[in-house]
Write a structure and sequence with these properties.
By secondary structure, the protein is an alpha+beta fold. It has helices spanning 15-34, 48-51, 56-61, 78-83, 86-93, 103-112, 157-173, 184-193, 200-207, 210-213, 215-224, 229-239, 245-255, 260-276, 342-352, 372-387, 401-410, 421-425, 444-452, and strands spanning 38-39, 45-47, 65-66, 96-98, 121-130, 142-151, 177-183, 285-287, 301-307, 316-321, 335-341, 365-369, 392-394, 415-419, 429-433, 439-442. The chain has two domains: 15-63 and 100-352, BirA Bifunctional Protein, domain 2, CATH 3.30.930.10; 365-452, Rossmann fold (3-Layer(aba) Sandwich).
């Protein structure tokens, strides 16, 4: 018989691992709520008409497509099968796909629910997404995103709040990070200045790979896409701009002086940096002109967060989009958002061992009983403790003491309440501290005080 397995790029999580993941989700969620964001959920699958064409050509290839129900080949002719045109056949056999991210479904949600929403609309969403990517370290086919977006506002105060939320989340998680920031308008201006304005998408997709494949390979890709050698040469000094954020801004002002869109991007960045100076931030913020974020829907500021103490890809990213809802027939709706990659954050916290030592999800107290009568005696005690917020369980079988104690050890339960004839006669239980080995008879009030303390 074949051993059961799971698809590559997916993972199972044990109760211990889930406790760690919930610590991450709860931390992120609590920060989102601090800034007035409300939670929504959307379906795991969307119509392909909603998803296709929103992520660029590379993104479309990574969509998991779902076969139509029933005889999905019914609409495919023999000739079409013989032609082996997979793109054409896919359209005939698949109408739905698993969501690739949470932003496009969110845009669809806003358009469908526009009459019920108050704008600016601030939402957060914590759900899994799927990408038919090649699995590797830190890159999964199924992973959770923790998205926070505000739509219906052009104000750059929203960008500041996103930066503040990044700062607060990683401060609470105790992870040292650097926030890299750029602007798609600056990138458009650069494309304009080097004479390749119509190749902005090819340029940004290539530049976005700089960290992964290096400058030489990026230049090769640009040339292969038809960007002129002269333009690629003009691009080099821009990608190598150094100095402080202010130095880079000043350089860009002269480089992009002839580009209206480029200068608008520079102005936006100046405003965001000025706003950042009004608040206290511990996270370093770096203007990085090689940051492109390959997704086509960004139109303004773009963000990426890197962990400083672990080698892994970006752990948070996002940006401003001015026309995402426009593809669903609702123009003029600007938005900005970021996404926390929970699975990569999980890997970072694991490597750095940054989880709290006490796990609030664990059972705090196990009742150990010698017989059925003792079990019945324990039931009201457990009800009282649970009513007071204590995680309690009882060993359900009448078994030897050693077996019941082993169960407590294996589950790392810190306290055991032993019930025998003497305890029942005295209206107490024998409370044992599994870490120190100390034990003493206790009343209900004493147990509550000790276990909570």
């Amino acid at each position: 018989m074949q051993k059961p397995s799971i698809p590559k790029g997916t993972r199972d999580f044990t109760p211990e691992e889930m406790a760690k993941r919930n610590y991450i989700f709860d931390t992120i969620k609590s920060v989102f709520k601090l800034y007035g964001y409300q939670q929504i959920e959307t379906p795991a699958m969307e119509n392909l008409s909603t998803l296709m064409g929103k992520y660029g050509e590379e993104g479309d290839k990574l969509l998991f497509k779902i076969l139509n129900s029933g005889d999905f080949m019914a609409n495919v002719s023999e000739q079409e099968c013989a032609d082996k045109n997979s793109v054409k056949i896919t359209k005939l056999i698949s109408e739905k796909g698993l969501r690739y991210d949470l932003t496009v479904p969110f845009a669809r949600f806003v358009v469908q629910n526009r009459d019920k929403l108050s704008f600016p609309f601030k939402r957060y969403q914590i759900q899994p997404v799927w990408r038919a990517d090649r699995p590797q370290k830190g890159r999964y086919r199924e992973f959770y995103q923790c998205d926070v977006d505000v739509v219906g506002s052009d104000s750059l105060l929203n960008e500041l709040e996103l930066i503040q939320m990044v700062d607060e989340v990683y401060r609470r998680l105790n992870v040292r990070v650097c926030l890299k920031i750029n602007n798609r308008k600056i990138l458009s201006g650069i494309a304009e200045i080097i004479g390749e304005a119509d190749r902005i998408i090819d340029i940004t997709v290539a530049i976005d790979k700089l960290d992964k494949i290096g400058l030489d390979k990026v230049n090769e890709e640009l040339l292969a896409k038809g960007v002129s050698r002269d333009a690629v040469e003009k691009l080099q000094p821009i990608l190598h701009l150094a100095g402080s954020n202010q130095d880079k801004i000043q350089s860009l002002k002269s480089i992009l002086a002839a580009s209206e869109v480029g200068m608008k991007g520079v102005e936006e960045m100046e405003t965001i940096f000025a706003l950042c100076e009004r608040v206290t931030l511990t996270t370093p913020i770096e203007l990085d002109l090689t940051l492109a974020r390959g997704l086509n829907y960004y139109t303004g500021a773009i963000f990426e967060v890197k962990a400083l103490d672990v080698q892994i890809g970006s752990i948070t990213g996002g940006g401003r989009y001015d026309n995402l809802t426009g593809v669903f027939g609702m123009d003029g709706m600007s938005g900005v958002g970021i996404s926390f990659g929970a699975d990569r954050i999980y890997d970072v916290l694991n490597q750095l061992d940054l989880y709290p030592k006490t796990n609030t999800e664990n059972t705090k107290l196990l009742f150990v009983c010698f017989g059925q009568e003792e079990q019945h005696y324990a039931l009201p005690w457990m009800q009282m403790l649970r009513a007071n917020g204590v995680n309690v369980e009882i060993y359900p079988e009448v078994a030897k003491m050693k077996k019941q104690m082993s169960y407590a050890d294996n589950k790392k339960i810190p306290f055991v309440a032993i019930v025998g004839g003497d305890e029942m006669a005295n209206h107490t239980v024998m409370l044992k501290n599994m870490i120190t080995g100390e034990q003493a008879p206790c009343s209900a009030e004493q147990i509550l005080q000790i276990v909570r303390g």
